[in-house]
Amino acid sequence: MDEAAFETFYRKTAGGIWSYIYRMTGDAAMADDLMQKTFFRFLRSNPSIADEDHLRRYVYKTATNLVFDHFREVRRDRARPFDWMPAEARPDRGDLRQDMSRVFAELKPQERALLWLAHVEGNSHEEIAEAIGVKSKSIKVMLFRARKRLGEMLTKKGLAPEVRR
Amino acid sequence: MTNECPFEPNVIDAVTNDAWTESLRKHVASCDDCAAAAEVAPWMARFSGLDEREHILPDPAVLWLKARLLQTSAAVQRASMPITRLQIAAYLIIAAGWAGLLTWKSNALQAWINRLSPGHVILGVSGAERTSLSLTVLLALILLASATVGVAMHTILAEE
Questions:
Q1: What's the pLDDT score for residue A94?
Q2: Residues B43 and B120 occupy one common structural domain
Q3: B151 and B73, same structural domain?
Q4: Residues B48 and B64 in one domain
Q5: What contacts B54, CB < 8 A, 6 or more positions away?
Q6: Given CB atoms, is A76 within the 8 Å cutoff of chain B?
Q7: Whole-angstrom Cα distance, residue A3 to residue A15?
Q8: What is the pLDDT of residue A34?
Q9: Domain A3-156's class?
Q10: CB A11 to CB B60 under 8 A?
Q11: pLDDT for B30-78, tens place per residue?
Q12: How far is B30 from chain A (nearest CA, A)?
């Protein structure tokens, strides 16, 4: 991949990747750092496949691995009760935006990844399975549970939006 | 529960864009997965639409350059690996040589070192007992000392 092709690919995917990492970690600086690492790994893999969709899936998979590694490190070093939560989601804040971030932060990292990839990125179960490194057969059940958990949390906190059908 | 419901993307789209059809409504009423998707889809859409995308992303040219620099330094590291291994082997051989020599000729070396002390120098001048190292030991000493200095110099120069 030459520099021009990389620039085109980067401009198409970087925004989505950054948002994904940011919503997973809740930390803008960490999102910057992990996004750069993601693209460094991507370039190190010397991508030559013309299929942009394939490259995009590879980038999301790399980002997911880096985010999960980050959470493993954070869990290991966790000293204070809210350190693992995104800064904006800690319990001393309080508008709707923070409420939403706090709810999302209460989900497990894998549930966050599942919901984000399914709802925001519009990925298929197969693509989600590839990104988070599980069998595609398992995604249906995992996604169902993640949705149920989020639904219950939203109902409990009175944040559930009405679905117009 | 193993296969993805084919209507799931349509349901998410319908909830997000308020584009329900009669058949989709009927389907959601009978499909647990789609009902669960429909339940959280509006919230996810709102959440993903929060203003975090104002964030300025790094320039791709800078990323490209950094990646190339990282690749170059990784390549240099890979290329210098055999030299590093050789250096380690040389240090090990020299250390073993010193250990062997000190063990084998410890008495002779101790006597020779003692001879260099000021007291012995005076006694030596006045005609006291003289001790000397054999040529082989002397050669081994010179060889090991030269090798130690040589490898150390190589390490310092290579790092610079």
A1: 53
A2: no
A3: yes
A4: no
A5: none
A6: no
A7: 18
A8: 94
A9: mainly alpha
A10: yes
A11: 898 899 998 899 899 888 887 655 678 889 999 899 988 988 888 888 8
A12: 14
The answer to whether A93 contacts chain B (CB < 8 Å) is no
Examine residue B69 and state whether it is found in any structural domain, yes or no.
yes
- Domains held by chain B: number: 2
Task: Specify if B1 maps to a domain.
Answer: no
Helix axes B106-115, B118-125, angle to 10 degrees: 80
The pLDDT tens digits for A56-94 are 999 999 999 999 999 888 776 554 444 555 555 554 445
B-facing residues of A in 49-68 (CB < 8 A) are: none
Rounded Cα distance, A102 and A99, in Å: 5
For the ranges A125-129, B26-30, B83-87, B132-136, which has the lowest average pLDDT? B132-136
Domain containing residue B87: 60-159
Q: Tokens for B16?
A: 């997000």
Q: Which amino acid is at B72?
A: T
| pLDDT value, residue A164 | 54
Nearest CA in chain A to B46: A100
User: CB atoms < 10 A from the CB of B31, how many?
Assistant: 16
What tens digit of pLDDT does each residue of A110-142 get?
999 999 999 999 899 999 999 999 998 899 999
A46, A119, A142, A153, best to mutate vs chain B, most B CBs in 10 Å: A119
Shortest Cα–Cα distance, B79 to chain A (Å): 17
> Does B19 share its domain with B87?
no
Residue type, A66: L
Cβ contact, residue pair B45, A119, below 8 Å: yes
Residues of B with CB under 8 A from a CB of A: 1-4, 9, 12, 15, 18, 20, 25, 28, 32-33, 36-48, 50, 52-53, 55, 57-58, 60-61, 63-64, 66-68, 70-71, 74
Cα angle, residue B28 at apex, residues B25 and B30 outer, rounded to 5°: 115
Per CB-CB distance under 8 Å, the chain B contacts of A98 are none
CA distance A39 to A59: 7
pLDDT in tens, A8-43: 999 999 999 999 999 898 888 899 999 999 999 999
- The partner residue sitting opposite B3, judged by closest CB among A11, A22, A140, is A140
Q: pLDDT value at position A77?
A: 57
